[in-house]
From TrEMBL:
Source lineage: Bacteria, Bacillati, Bacillota, Clostridia, Eubacteriales
Claim: Glycoprotein is one of the keywords in the record: no
Listed transmembrane segments: 12-30, 59-79, 86-105, 132-153, 183-203, 209-231, 238-260, 266-283
Membrane topology: Multi-pass membrane protein
Alphabetized GO MF terms: transmembrane transporter activity
Subcellular location: Cell membrane
Main localization (coarse): membrane
Protein name: Putative ABC transport system permease protein
Record key words, sorted: Cell membrane, Membrane, Transmembrane, Transmembrane helix
């Protein structure tokens, strides 16, 4: 692979990293199977594209996308906490509704930003950065998001959100309103997803109504890959694993495309990556148990041999 392809994989891994952090926030921290992701990602892209086309500042568009993503997460949370809709179904309902909402915002299925001023065109105008401009911008965004998320999850409110995902009944017995904690977690998670959609739309130069399809699977794949490679024993390590998983996932996609795989099979490849990543811990655990059992059998055989030898000498 050439340097440009490696840079492209790194850029995409960092830009999609915010989306993976959003998936981590809902699925891992909150333990909520939120399918709003597919719609919230496109929502961030749609709001950003339309806002920029109206002649506004692209950085303000990013902020507006995050606010809209947070509202989408709140709607999902209110369906669950207020109307007692199942978590999975609440996300599906919001995702379906967002499809029509996104079309309303965009006015058509695709909006081009190729001739518009975006945050990436501003970065590329800085000649000193050269081709590393988008990478540095993505890295800066990831550092800020990870830092803020790490700080938040260590506050009293953040720890209450984490405790709600770990043991909802126990934390409710301590007087914590778990419904509010779910709303907070879902709002933050989908705000991060919309942030990623905004960045990706400006990076690619367009917003498309179908760009969010399969984002939840890509996010889960990145989370699982990162946890398998880096681990999640501490909070910082878990957040770092999410970003590493996002970069590795995008690199694998680029490698497979370079080997000649049709782009139409990417969703199939993503599903296979998720299956392999899910099976990896189980296989490693079984192999670990097997090695321990074999070692125990070897120790037992050695002990028996030593006992037989001792009895013979006696």
């Amino acid at each position: 692979m050439s340097l440009s392809i490696w840079l492209g994989s790194l850029e995409q891994g960092l830009l999609w990293g915010a989306m993976v952090l959003g998936v981590y926030m809902t699925f891992r921290v909150l333990d909520y199977p939120d399918l709003t992701v597919d719609g919230a990602f496109t929502l961030g892209a749609a709001v950003t594209a339309q806002y920029i086309l109206l002649g506004n500042n692209p950085w303000q568009a990013v902020l507006g996308a995050m606010i809209c993503g947070a509202l989408a997460g709140l709607i999902t949370g209110l369906l669950h906490t207020g109307l007692r809709v199942a978590p999975l179904l609440s996300g599906i309902l919001t995702m379906i509704a967002l499809y029509s909402i996104n079309l309303r915002i965009m006015g058509q299925a695709n909006l081009s930003l190729l001739r518009e001023q975006t945050i990436f065109t501003q970065v590329r105008d800085i000649t000193l950065l050269g081709p590393w401009g988008p990478v540095l911008l993505g890295l800066m965004v990831v550092i800020v998001v990870v830092g803020l998320l790490y700080f938040f999850l260590q506050t009293e409110l953040g720890m209450s959100v984490r405790a709600t995902g770990d043991n909802e009944q126990m934390i409710r017995s301590l007087g914590v309103n778990t419904s509010t904690m779910k709303l907070v977690g879902l709002a933050i998670g989908n705000a991060l997803v919309a942030l990623s959609g905004s960045l990706v739309a400006q990076y690619q130069g367009f917003a498309d109504i179908g760009m969010g399809i399969g984002m939840i699977i890509a996010g889960l794949a990145s989370v699982i890959i990162g946890e398998a490679l880096v681990g999640n024993h501490t909070l910082f390590r878990a957040l770092l694993a999410v970003i590493v998983g996002s970069i590795v996932y995008r690199t694998v996609i680029s490698l497979v495309l370079q080997l000649g795989m049709p782009a139409t099979d990417l969703k199939l490849l993503t599903s296979l990556i998720v299956v392999v990543a899910l099976a990896f811990p189980l296989v490693r655990q079984r192999l670990g148990f097997r090695s321990l059992r074999l070692r125990g059998e070897q120790v037992a055989e050695t002990g028996q041999c030593a006992q037989d030898l001792s009895s013979r000498r006696g």
